[in-house]
Amino acid sequence: MDTATSSASTFASKDFKSDLKPIWCPGCGDFGVLQAIYRALAAIGRPPHEIAFISGIGCSSRIPGYTTAYGFNSVHGRALPIAQGLKLARPELLVLAAGGDGDGFSIGGGHVPHAIRRNDDLTYIVMDNQTYGLTKGQLSPTSHRGSRTVTSAHGSLENPVNPLMYVLAYGASFVAQGTPADIPGLTAIIEEAIRFPGFAFVNVQSPCVTYGEEDQQIKHHKAVMKKLESVGHDATSRIQALDKAQTYGQELLTGVFFRDPNPPPTLGALVRERHEALMPKAAPRERILDMFVQH
Ligand SMILES: Cc1ncc(C[n+]2csc(CCOP(=O)(O)OP(=O)(O)O)c2C)c(N)n1
Ligand code: SF4
Known about the structure:
single chain, 295 residues, alpha/beta, Rossmann fold, eight-stranded mixed sheet, 10 helices, globular, binds thiamine diphosphate
């Protein structure tokens, strides 16, 4: 975070839980993601009014409403542009963005590279359930080849997007993956992503119990998940991260794939630097309008 932090954490998970009752299907993976977010925010220790949570549209994009942070359940695929604008205008806020795999890698896929190259201090959490949950189970960009859905009755002929490779290839400085099958692990990842100074991406394999397949469910995750730290992964190497990310869709690796040991400056820091350099030459605020008015 490049923003000021409050004093030592005096917050508990319950302080981030809103009065709105989630309307997700019983057993939806997003419940676990929400728990991990509450816990991570409690550990971070900033009060809810200093946090803004922006989402797109989808089952997963309902998540800001279930927290006591400021929330904006915006437009399908547009969480990142809104989050970037907000962070630029109000750099002191802790800004989180969230949504589904459809929201982030289909309609919103074109925004991801730009958020990465601008490197604003944002945390982007994608609940990757390999389906369009809200609109009743259509093929999504991360659905595997052969997926049978209402829009691919004979099995999908398309290869899935690999979100981990996608963001690593565009230069993201913090890339991690978790699952609600391991809430303590997911909490630690989200907390670290929030603390990371710059754009941080967390892919969460969040099962859709209604339209998802059996091997995408919590029970299966528990059986197959492997922590990156247990396989000798070096998270300071982008090459190693890319190599491990290739297993997306075949293995369930969790933890931090890449954490840049020398994070580049955030957009906010560069803007402030430019601002300070140019301020001495700037026209007084009260004269700016006159400069644009034709006399
Ligand atoms: C511009 C626009 N196009 C399409 C839709 C319809 N729509 C709403 S949510 C959604 C996809 C939801 O899938 P995902 O983003 O993966 O989230 P999930 O519901 O699975 O959490 C679609 C296609 C929309 N609301 N707005
Ligand atoms: S449809 Fe799927 S993603 Fe949506 S609430 Fe139900 S289980 Fe969750």
